[in-house]
Amino acid sequence: MIPDANSISTFTDELVAFIDRDVSAGHEPVEADTDLVMTGLVDSLGVVLIVEWLEERLGIRIDPADVVIEHFDTARSMVDYLRSRGDCTVD
Questions:
Q1: For the domain that residue 19 is a member of, what is the CATH number?
Q2: How many beta carbons lie within 10 A of that of residue 17, not counting itself?
Q3: What residues contact residue 28 under an 8 Å CB cut-off, 6+ apart?
Q4: Residue 80 belongs to a domain
């Protein structure tokens, strides 16, 4: 379920809303633990869009070598990856 703009309280919610609204190729709702790639909801172009959004939103650069399935299969894994970097604040 997409949180409405007034209920987005965390970065994860904001990321999920972006993916669901602007990137997802499916009709199923995206949640923090939805496997985006294996379900086909996000393709390689969608991952590029997500990376661009993250970079712009957080003012960071993501090394292309870090764009791997382990970091980008779910919104939650993306947030975990971002936290592990130590150069940006999420949630």
A1: 1.10.1200.10
A2: 19
A3: 34, 39, 41
A4: yes
**pTM over 0.70, yes/no:** yes
Domain that residue 61 falls in: 11-85
**Alpha-carbon distances, residue 22 vs 4, 17, 42, 66, 89 (angstroms):** 14, 8, 10, 22, 23
Ramachandran area for residue 86 (φ above 0: left; ψ -120 to 50: alpha; else beta):
left
pLDDT tens-digit profile of 50-90? Answer: 999 999 999 999 999 999 999 999 999 999 999 999 888 88
* Position 6, amino acid: N
User: What is the total count of domains within the chain?
Assistant: 1
